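User: My advisor, Dr. K., asked me to get a structural model of this assembly before our group meeting. I'm new to this, so sorry if the format is off. These are the inputs:
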Amino acid sequence: MYSDLIQSLPNVIAWANIAALVIGVLAGIVVGAMPGLSATMAISVLVPFTFGLEPLVALGLMAGIYNGAMYGGAIPAVLLRIPGTPAAVATTFDGYPMAQQGKGGYALQVAVVSSAFGGMASAIALMLLAPPLSRVTLLFGPAEVFWVAVFGLCSIIFLLGGNVTKGLISACFGVFVSVVGSDPIFGNDRYTFGQLELLDGIHIVILLVGLYALPPVIDLLESPLKTENSAGDRLGTEPIWRTFPQMLRFWKTWIRSALIGIWIGILPGAGGSMAAFMSYNEARRSSKTPETWGNGEPEGVAASETANNADTAAALIPALTLGIPGTAVAAIMLGGLLIHGLQPGPMLFRNNPDIVFGFMWQFLFGAILLVFLGGSLATNSFAKLLKLPRPLLGSVIIILMLIGVYSIHGRMFDVYLMLGFGAIGYVMDKLRFPLPPVVLGLILGGFAEENLRLALRIGRGNWMVLFQNVTSLILVALTVAVVVGPMVKHRLIDKKKAESKG
Amino acid sequence: MHNKPTHRFLRAESITAFYIIVVAAAFLIPTTDLAPLSALLPAAMLVGLILLALVMLITDQRKAAAGEEAEAVVKSPKRVFGAFGLIILYAICVDLIGFYISTALSLPLVAFIFGYRSPVGLAIATAIVLLAIYLIFGVSMSQEFPTGLLWAK
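Assistant: The format is fine. Below is the predicted structure of the whole assembly, which you can bring to the meeting.
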């Protein structure tokens, strides 16, 4: 089972793949360091440019960006008290007080070492857990695959928190977009309105760029960030090899936070922010000096940064094996895999072991590279990024979006379609509709429909074919649990509240 | 979309729910022409959208009736609509007059309008971005960009 993992290693250490990883990590740190830009946005802008690249080079770029951005978010969190990414919110609690005390450099070094530790732990978890899980999923037939898709959609809607109605609307919209184009079995046109460009359906990248890249650009132009109060001019950075021995006392926090991050990463819909908060609270609870937390305790930075990076590769465990992404970035990475002809899910490990295992190695190497590329000298340079003029940055991203989407098929129709999705995405973002269910709906919609119709054909039109074996019933039970579980939990909380008031 | 609604039916969520219902209902019309199995999933999704949007509309109207104020959707609507307008204008210009000319004009224009006012910085940034695009995409990746419908005619 793990022999494929070892066999894929030589491919990964090819120069082109390592270079892609280095560029990815650097680009990720830059993007993460820019408040308002996120790994999700960076990868969605990048995906179209990877068309012509070898799959491992493209995936290396994505893995690098994801790892880099999760650390990069700590730079403005520490220096400005503005989290560069949502997952870096907990880093501000102790990182910013440290920067005010002239220890910003040390805070960033703790962040980079902790991020690297979290990333490595996450990559190892992915390597150990994904292969056996993929073996189980190989036994699935069309009915089970249909239920996996339904389970994936339900888990991201109901476990994501927030408004369930809006989550369901997002998912219905995503699934509806997936049916545009030729019918996969009958071949008749659906909702193409005579447009030849829509015959092949709507390319996932067009939707991704529109939904995830355009809204942040509009935000960037709507309210330019002021960075005058940056603590970046007095970082007090010492070489990382001198400060590293002081960090070794965080070993317990690193291990605990890594485990929390991995667990949260595997759960669909949770994500890095939740991992960082849970880990921070847990580390504070078990600290001997909890009163120092919030006033510049480096262990607080270690806890949140380890957890938000431990979430990265772990989120790919359900994504690669079942086709269910744990986070928005994982959903976009699935899109990245699809454009290289790699269908996430049970067959991926059997058909493309060199690529899928190579991708896992790239996560591990990306995490290790963080220490070298985000070390002391680089940390000082990255802190200066905060002074880049944001309107200019916004303009450049708009151009990159246009180039990326245009280059898919070489036609402006896709650009206008992307702008349409961008407008929808902006409204959804502002009205707090979750975006991951849209992407997942698009990815799983076609997949679910094809397998549902295949199962019905096998069962000669009898719908009971969907409930005729144990695996299907287990998946149905899990889906029901995911839907009903949060409702029961809310009821119980409300009941407890009412009782305590009474 | 109204930022500060003056009437309960002009709340952003209510308007959005209304649009979802109208658009989903409109898409149901071509669905009737499809074969039953082909129409199964899209029809389910469209009906689902209509029902869910109705729930959203009723919930929002209940909130309005209870006196709950709608949150401001955008901080500065002028800047948001301006940004959208400029991006659409840029795409149309690329289509009509070509990629390089449009980019050379729109990059400094957008950055200038949204607050970056250094002429030297704008000129340098525009030159660097155009050169980088030409070398990376045009030369090394042989990517062809729109040359402009106007010139083609």
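One thing worth pointing out at the meeting: Residues 2-139+214-409 of chain A form one domain.

User: Perfect, thanks a lot.
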